Amino acid sequence: MAGVPVPGDKRVFMTGNEVVAYAAVAARADIMYGYPITPQNEVMHYWTRLAPKYEKRFLQTEDELSAGFTTIGGVMAGRKAFTATAGPGNVLMQEPMAMAEMMRLPVVVVIMQRGGPSTATVIYSQQEVILTTFGGNGEGFRIVYSTATHQELYDYTIKAFNTAWRYRFPVFLLADGYQAKMREPLTIYDPLERGIELIAPEAYLGRPGTPGVDRPPGHFRNTYSTEEELYEVLQGHVREYERIWREVEEYESLGTEDTDLLIIAHGVVARAAKQAVEYLRGEGLKVGYFRPVTLRPMPVDALREAVSRTKRFMVVESAYGQLSKLVRDALYGLAVEMVPLYKPGVGVTPEEIMARSRELIVKGES
Amino acid sequence: MKTKNGLTKIVIAGEGGQGVQAVAEILAEAAYEEGRQALYIPNFGVEQRGGVSVAFLQIGDRSIGAPKFETADIVVALSGRALLRTRQYVGPQTTLIYDDLAEVKDEEMPRQAAQILSIPAVETSKKELHPRVFNVMILGAVIAATGVVTLDDAKKALEIRLGHKFEQDPKLRELNYRALERGVELLEQVMRGGKEHSGALRAYH
Amino acid sequence: MAVQPAMPRSWRRESKPHKFCPGCGHGIALKALGQAIDELGIQDRVVFGCDIGCSLLTWDFFNVDTVQTHHGRTTPVMTGIKRANPNLICIAYMGDGGGYAIGAQHLVNAAGRNEKITVILVNNTQYAMTGGQMAPTTLPGQKTETTPYGRDVELTGFPTQGPEMVAAITPEGAYVARGTVSKIRQLQKMYVRALLNQIEGRGFSFVETLATCPTNWRTNAEKTWAFLEKQMPEYFRVGELKVPLTTEGAEEA
Questions:
Q1: Closest Cα in chain A, distance from residue C47 (Å)
Q2: What are the residue ranges of helices labelled H in C116-249?
Q3: In chain B, which residues touch A (CB < 8 A)?
Q4: Which parts of chain C are beta strand (E)?
């Protein structure tokens, strides 16, 4: 069995794309399928450099449809398979992911969000939140982790494979162009040495024995003849998704006990939000911070709890209200004022969050 | 350069091919090797080549928050277009360094800067050194302006990055070190208000 | 005891009688394929992938592991499986719309990469499951739901020459043929050779299969067979187009 690039803990200074490739090796991923699109290309570049050293495979496909469907083939053959994409590629990726959702296939997809709509920029955004959580002609039966730091990119890439193979829902690692391209320090490690169990993959197809003789054939489909038949299958998915919801949901919060203003953000914007909140709290202002780490499933209870203890909340995102849609859905019925700070397609600085927060608190006091 | 919370925010911008990303990377690596915190992010357009290339860099002692910031402690602009693109990051506490060959209209100069320094980097690298070490000279200038890393650590970082090339051609090491030191000198010269290149300083302050 | 018509061993009895219309060519193609699987004794290693369109009705057809995919996407799913576990024998089964229209980029690129999979493409000259619209393979002048006055080649081009294209773009080692359900022995032999080509790791293998669709052609038995045996071969030449050198003598058209 091939090992990992670094035995023991190692402090490194890398780009996020490089982190993902190393983490996938550490997670004992077997095969990556991918199609070039900025800003995720270096995930493939590093993977293809590491792959032969650790008996891993790679296939460059003809488009993201193929990248997604070959990844499906990979997991059905019993391998830990993954792909990475962004922007318009994420749009195409939703077709195969709808199939993965219907058939409960443990695919792992890394998304490095870029500006949108359309080609827009190759730089950065948080505009693929709705697409990634609810894309495809489905119900969003998928798990979406939104990372904020390189350490999280490493930790959650490893976790993504475990979550996928444990629960058999497609898992997305939702990052962005900033995270893809920036360098910062982190510690990489072998999860096995840390005692982190790695869930073993299982083949759907080609198990031992002759189908129909030694065992029933594996007949896997996503087509149904009647409404009732589909309904029954989906009810199964609903029950299972709701059962695992609280096991899977994750969040981070700070000072949410009793606040004049609660700032809600996810991903890399949460770094600016947290920084702003720490600073404002240092000034004596009653400001709290809440960050959903899983955007699907949304940590509804914790979010409602935090919001019910604030006078008003502000949703900050590099999109025009995509996180806010998910948040408002989770908060239905709570009568708390919401203030948006939407910066579609551009980064958010702690300074502008602080400025807006001060305005709101002053206004709130008057 | 002493800044709030011991954090230094740097923007370096130039024409594609001027090597500004490498400058930021080397600085970030040098800081990281010193055991400090660093966050470096390149900003780029759709073009792989050509166009203005901007590097954002933060170096500090505590873990770094948001990758994006509003105003930098130091902005280095190596062309007229680069200055136009990055003047939004110039605030009242910012030191702006630009190449004296950069064509900038008077009204386009961000006068709010704490300090504006022009250095003859392009010219010096062409005349005295070699255009390919232009960016190493800029690295020297940034180090002189900020003190975010020591010259020795910058050399170590250069060694990590270019060591394999230096092995093949030791003259290359010498050239790079000379460029680094010349960059430091250029900046120290204008900061002292040296005769030739302090024009900008006088003009705006 | 009544005599049962011979059913290939690899067919799944529980899902028979199958769901295809009377006179449909799929049943014959699938019989030839079942017999090919039996002949090679590979039932335990075959993974069968079916597309959207009438081909999806095969999702429980065989006693082999089966994946029903999306329209046009069977080629990449089988490619992904084969790349992840080369020991499996992957068959992508699709219609002309799936292979030549919505999934054309996958067919072209899998062929170009010489993927070690076998593609069986059933050509019945139109989109059957959706009610008989024009396909890339519709014959000039042929009436379909979207060419009610007949296919006008000035507006919509000529029938796609699939195997000719695949033969042109595949590297050495590929096997490319066009068979017909009117010659089941020859068809079975082509399937065997296509599968052997994959088993022996030589390259991509592709068999277009001319097939009948009396439901959408709106033809009686006599006209159905006339269309298959006389009109279709005017545009689609039956025979082997590309045979790896290591394979013994080419099959006669």
A1: 7
A2: 153-156, 162-169, 184-199, 214-217, 221-226, 232-235
A3: 25, 28-29, 32, 37-46, 64-71
A4: 46-50, 65-68, 89-95, 118-123, 126-127, 133-134, 175-180, 205-210, 239-242
C80 in contact with A, Cβ within 8 Å: yes
Instruction: Tell me the H-state helices in chain A.
Output: 16-26, 41-50, 64-76, 87-103, 129-134, 150-167, 177-181, 227-248, 267-282, 300-308, 322-330, 350-365
Judged by CB atoms closer than 8 Å, whether chains meet at A73 and C60 is answered as no
- Domain at A10-188: CATH architecture: 3-Layer(aba) Sandwich (3.40)
- Half-sphere exposure in the Cβ direction for B164 (13 Å, CA): 1
Position B106 confidence tier, pLDDT thresholds 50, 70, 90: confident
Among candidate residues A144, A40, A136, the one with its CA nearest the CA of residue A87:
A40
Report pLDDT digits (tens) over B174-190: 999 999 999 999 999 99
Closest CA to B10 of B67, B84, B79: B67
Alpha carbon distances (Å) from B31 to B5, B25, B26, B153, C132: 16, 10, 9, 8, 68
Burial class (CB in 10 A: 0-12, 13-18, 19+), A23: buried
Subunits adjacent to chain B (3 or more Cβ pairs under 8 Å): A
Q: What is the CATH number of the domain that holds B94?
A: 3.40.920.10
CA-angle at B16, arms to A126 and B18, nearest 5°: 125
pLDDT band at A103 (very low <50, low <70, confident <90, very high): very high
- Comparing CA positions, the residue from B41, C114, B167, C183 lying closest to residue A124 is B41
CA distances from B78 to A329, B84, B134, B135, C173 (A): 48, 11, 10, 10, 56
> What are the tens digits of pLDDT across the range C127-139?
999 999 999 999 9
Average pLDDT, chain C: 95
Closest listed residue to residue B176, CA positions, set B119, B144, B137: B137
Residues A147 and A186: beta-carbon distance below 8 Å: no
Which of A219, A222, A233 to mutate to test binding with chain C, by most C CBs within 10 Å of its CB? A219
**Count of structural domains within chain B:** 1
Residue at B150: amino acid letter: T
CA distance C188 to C120: 12
Give the right CATH number for A252-365 from 2.70.70.10, 3.40.50.920, 1.10.760.10, 3.90.190.20.
3.40.50.920
In this predicted complex, what is the ipTM? 0.95
Q: How far is C240 from chain A (nearest CA, A)?
A: 27
**Separation between Cα atoms, residue C46 and residue C137, nearest integer Å:** 29
- Within 8 A of B45 by CB-CB distance, chain A residues are 121-122
Q: Do B68 and A351 touch (CB under 8 A)?
A: no
Answer with the residue of higher pLDDT: B172 or C247.
B172
Residues A181, B32: C-beta atoms closer than 8 Å: no
Q: Indicate yes or no: CB of C80 within 8 angstroms of CB of A65.
A: no
- Which residues on chain B are in Cβ contact (under 8 Å) with A178? 41, 67-68
B38: nearest CA partner in chain A = A184
Chain A closest-CA separation from residue C45 CA (Å): 6
Residue B87 pLDDT > 60: yes
The answer to whether A184 contacts B68, with C-beta atoms less than 8 Å apart, is no
For residue range A210-235, list pLDDT tens digits in order: 999 999 999 999 999 999 999 999 99
Domain count within chain C: 1
- Does the structure show a pLDDT above 50 at B204? no
Look up the domain containing B82 and give its range. Answer: 4-204
Cis peptide before C5 (omega within 30 of 0): no
Distance from CA of C119 to the nearest CA of A (A): 15
The yes-or-no verdict on residue C248 having pLDDT over 50 is yes
Distance from CA of C96 to the nearest CA of A (A): 18
CB-closest option in A178, A271, A351 to B41: A178
